[in-house]
Amino acid sequence: MMGVILFAIFATAAVACGINLVLQRHPVTSALSLIGVMGSLAVLYLLLGAEFIAAVQLIVYAGAIMVLFLFVIMLLNAGEERKIPGKSLVSKLIGLPVFVLFLGLVAYLIQTQYTHAGSPVDFDAFTGGGPREVGMALFTTYLLPFEVTSVLILIAILGAIVLARKEID
Amino acid sequence: MNYFLLTLIKAGLIAFVLVTVLAYLVWVERKVLAHIQLRVGPNRVGPHGLLQPLSDLVKLLFKEGFIPSHVNLFFYLLAPFMAVALSLGSIAVIPLGPQIDVFGIKTNLGLADVNIGILFMLGLGSLGVYGVALAGWASNNKYALIGGLRSAAQMISYELPLALAIVAPLLMFNTLSFREVVDAQGGYLFGFIPQWAIFQLPVPQLISFIIFLIAAFAETNRIPFDLPEAENELVAGFHTEYSSMLFAAFFTAEYGHITTACMVASVLFLGGWQPLWPAAYGSDFFPVVAHWFFAAICFWHARQPARSYDRYTMPILGIILFGAGGLFLVPFLKPILVPLFWFLSKVAFLIFTFVWVRGTLPRFRYDQLMRFTWTFLFPVALVNLLITGLLVALTTK
Amino acid sequence: MDFTLPPLPISAIPLSAYLILSAILFGLGICGFLFRRNLITVFMSIELMLNAVNLSFVAFSHQMKQADGQIYSFFVMVVAAAEAAVGLAIILTVFKNRETLEVDEVDNLKL
């Protein structure tokens, strides 16, 4: 019941923000739309019983990665994209219907493939996504990937510093 | 009683009290700062300037909401709303007291009891930077932009030690729910040392508490870390171009941030509503004694008035305090008011610390600020977390 | 006093709705990647695609009643964080050398 209403609201919000991301010419508007998508997805994760992932989505994605994006946009003072004249009329006229057709095809395939798929999604249908369960899985079954990821992040930090530092002549 | 209706009533009550308290925090801050600097502070509007917040509000309401022509209008208007909503939002998950029984209705003091409350609070806190950064960018003013950029960098950097400082006590409590955190801090070692996180064995979390406070100063853009709005470099930083109620929104957001940070600190480290010493030694009667003590001071002042009107205002204040102290003796109100008193007095002490630091310390330089967090605060928080984790692992079966 | 809402046409959302939403978001990500010419917006479109994939991971995790799908999306987030750090550093360097963020103008091997 509550699940249907929340899904309707936040799925619509996610799609609207996604469309806005693609249509807007200014990177700051796009970034804000992406934050909107991420916030809506966090609510959908809560609906799916993934409490920990929802919180991480807010903290890491919306709170850290997107701040970094916004920071770079503000730092470089990126303005609106220039309009490039002379796009072919055919692509303008055909592009959107073909895109909608493609999405419709995908939706049709998913619908036909998953009609029999078990339980519908609602609150309390699955409660194994709390911090305790996810942490348990991370530090037992997935311990090696987890540790390798920390090395990956270390390398990324080093790479970012090397790339972005000032050249000392 | 319908759960929905009950929550609605609680939300309305908490929102009303919170907004009033936020308005009076400005008065408290000005008054305390004034006394630190040997001044009088606001004393014109009402006795002791007590009506100053009201007059400020009226002034801000009727001021022209001037919008400069060169701003990015949508984001310029959106930023203050984001700042206020995100700073006041985390109050929803902070518990204010234990379960109480009013007219046969059992309810928790506080709005929502979320089992990942601390993660929720961190999530909202990490989103808080957008209000400031967007305000700085949308103003289309170089001072505002520099303020917004500084704040973005500063808040990302200080979030790391903040989160690490929170994780250390959570390792001992083994929960992410605020209410369970407070319950885990009940009881007394040897019958008199409170089991608050900063006193609790195996690792007293004093270092985490200090790191948390320092990081909270930076997160709330307060002196000594108020670089985003440094007056003598950046005019007023990110809110240079704002006036009227939009400016008031940023003010509310700042004080809301301070209040929630102090509440989280007192829940995580100072035991929430757990009293300082056991009820067996009469901690339940401390609120009464404290109120009556201040009432007595008021009456004494009334006999030797420093200002002519003190002869009338001081007895009134004393009678109010006397009555408030008496409320703690009413058996029906006692289980509600005593925990609230302990919790709010801890919060008030921490807020006073914020003002105290502002009156005492100078501002950091920007490079010092960044070097401080990355080369000192962050490593210390990591080492503290490591030691805590090791000792917790060794002592638990 | 009881608040009851009128009954809705569907009582619960099926899994396929989440998958279709994920597909739509992924398609929008591809569109942004192809249409936009600002480097940062292109990068953000990639993040949108990653988010869409995360949604289907979590939805399948709900379907399978296992936390494993959520672990995958956790790793995706971590990798996205690393990718954002390096990618934005590259964008900063490109801007420093070429003074532009338009992908069409960054087409010379030599400066």
Q: In words, what does this structure look like?
A:
Chain A has 169 residues and is mainly α. In chain A, helix 1 packs antiparallel against helix 2 and helix 2 (27-47) packs antiparallel against helix 3 (51-76). Helices cover 74% and strands 0% of the residues of chain A. Chain A is built from six helices and no strands. Chain A has helices at 2-23, 27-47, 51-76, 89-113, 131-139, 143-164. Chain A is globular and about 55 Å long. With 397 residues, chain B is mainly alpha-helical. Chain B has one domain (57-274, 330-395). Chain B is 65% helix and 3% strand. Chain B contains 14 helices and four strands. Chain B has helices spanning 3-36, 52-62, 73-89, 117-127, 129-138, 142-173, 178-183, 206-219, 231-234, 244-268, 286-303, 310-327, 334-360, 366-395; strands at residues 99-102, 105-108, 188-189, 193-194. A two-stranded antiparallel ribbon of chain B has the order 1-2. In chain B, helix 1 (3-36) packs parallel to helix 13 (334-360), helix 3 (73-89) runs parallel beside helix 10 (244-268) and helix 6 packs antiparallel against helix 8. Chain C has 111 residues and is mainly alpha-helical. Chain C has a domain at 37-105: Helix Hairpins. Helix content of chain C is 70%, strand content 0%. In chain C, helix 1 packs antiparallel against helix 2 (39-64) and helix 2 runs antiparallel to helix 3. The longest helix of chain C is centred in the C-terminal third of the chain and has 31 residues, at 68-98. Chain C is elongated. The termini of chain C are far apart. The mean pLDDT of chain C is 83.
Summarize the structure.
Chain A is mostly helical. Helix content of chain A is 74%, strand content 0%.
Q: Profile the largest sheet of chain A.
A: none
The number of E-state strands of chain B comes to: 4
C-alpha termini separation of chain B: 43 Å
Computed structural class of chain B: mainly alpha
- Amount of helix of chain A: over 70%
In total, the number of domains of chain B comes to 1
Q: Note the run of SSEs of chain A as H and E.
A: HHHHHH
* CA-CA gap between termini of chain A: 65 Å
Q: Tally of extended strands of chain A? A: 0
Rg of Cα set of chain B: 22 Å
Low-confidence stretches of chain B: none
Count of domain modules of chain A:
2
Which structural class should the secondary elements of chain A be placed in?
A: mainly alpha
- CA-atom Rg of chain A in angstroms: 21 Å
Which percent range fits the helix content of chain B? 55-70%
CATH architecture name of the largest domain in chain A? Up-down Bundle
**Could you name the CATH homologous superfamily of the largest domain in chain A?**
NADH-ubiquinone/plastoquinone oxidoreductase chain 6, subunit NuoJ
List SSEs of chain B in N-to-C order. Answer: HHHEEHHHHEEHHHHHHH
Tally of individual helices of chain A: 6
What's the CATH class label of the largest domain in chain A? Mainly Alpha
